[in-house]
Write a structure and sequence with these properties.
Elements lengths: L2 H8 L7 H4 L6 E3 L7 E2 L2 H4 L4 E3 L5 E9 L7 H5 L6 E4 L6 E12 L7 H16 L10 E3 L7 E4 L5 E2 L1 H10 L9 H4 L4 H19 L6 H23 L7 H18 L2 H41 L1
Parallel strand pairs: 6-9
Antiparallel strand pairs: 1-2, 1-3, 3-7, 4-6, 5-6, 5-8
InterPro entries: Plasmid_replicase_bac (IPR004322)
């Protein structure tokens, strides 16, 4: 990097690139946290104190709602990298601690779930270690450029890969284990996505071949996901159920992927492969047992000589 570019970056803060990483195209916004929210253009939304954090299907910002004092110090106190920004209440110094991601995570891609699973663990780890409100849903955040809040901006390069944040949390022992992740991310908004996705896809794999009409299939997948959202997600997660739009996005993704990839023809091929593999494995086990028996008999005969 040239010296002039480096000098320029040193004079900038994340405020200079904020709008590049805040992605909603027509955000929900309001001047009151508990007020009526309306969708407006980005420019109009930024005139309001509270704005939608991320698009429904994509996440570029991870927000932790720290209700205690000194939100601006929390990351440094626990040994985490500096946030992209912190938007605070000027009187209580509580606020939203925000990390922006270099690569946004698609929450509805049925073929690529690993980033979503890792995002849920990172979000839960940040909530735990930064003293975040487990009831905060993440949908709405404090607008850091609005006069109602006091912002603390990070460096212009305070932008992180998901694995960077996971490593930082792991280094201080705050990253939830990947095993049985649905049980370890009950305070994560993205954790709801992971849990509902897994519940729905596991059912869809088994149910797919009972349907021949895609419209009926898609409607049934959505109905199943909606039922699990209110009967499981709402009960188990501290942030409550997901919105209907979020459920619809997940159901649509699963319905499309399963419809394309689980067909009667492909299932027949898979079963043939599984049968061959099981038969081969069973033969290998029988052969190994026979060889062990022969060896044991030979040893007995040798010992009797």
């Amino acid at each position: 990097m040239g010296q002039s570019r480096r000098a320029l970056l040193e004079t900038m803060t994340f405020q200079d690139v904020f709008e590049q990483h805040w992605l909603p195209a027509k955000p929900l916004c309001s001047d009151r946290k508990d007020g009526a929210y309306k969708r407006r253009t980005r420019a109009k939304a930024l005139e309001h104190a509270y704005i939608e954090t991320n698009p429904l299907a994509m996440q570029s910002l991870i927000v932790t709602d720290h209700d205690g004092a000194d939100a601006d110090w929390q990351a440094d106190l626990v040994g985490l990298p500096q946030p992209s920004w912190v938007a605070m209440n000027s009187e209580t110094r509580s606020g939203h601690i925000v990390y922006a991601l270099k690569s946004p995570v698609c929450l509805t891609d049925a073929a690529h779930r690993a980033p979503v699973n890792l995002l849920a663990r990172v979000e839960q780890g940040l909530t735990d270690v930064l003293g975040g409100d487990i009831g905060y849903g993440g949908r709405i955040t404090k607008n850091p450029i609005h006069r109602a809040h006091m912002p603390l901006w990070g460096d212009v390069e305070a932008l992180y890969g998901l694995r960077d944040l996971a490593k930082a949390l792991g280094d201080i022992g705050a990253l939830p284990e990947p095993h049985r992740s649905a049980q370890t991310v009950l305070g994560s908004a993205v954790g709801r996505n992971v849990a509902l996705f897994n519940l729905t896809r596991q059912w869809a794999y088994r149910a797919r071949l009972r349907y021949t009409d895609y419209a009926e299939w898609a409607e049934t997948v959505y109905a199943f996901a909606s039922m699990k959202n209110v009967s499981v997600i709402a009960d188990e997660f501290s942030r409550g159920p997901m919105s209907e739009n979020e459920v619809a996005q997940i159901a649509k993704s699963i319905a499309g992927w399963v419809w394309r990839n689980i067909t009667s023809e492909q299932t027949a091929v898979n079963r043939k492969r599984w049968g061959y593999s099981l038969g081969k494995r069973s033969g290998e086990i029988r052969l190994a047992k026979q060889e062990s028996l022969i060896q044991a008999l030979e040893e007995m005969n040798y010992g009797s000589c």
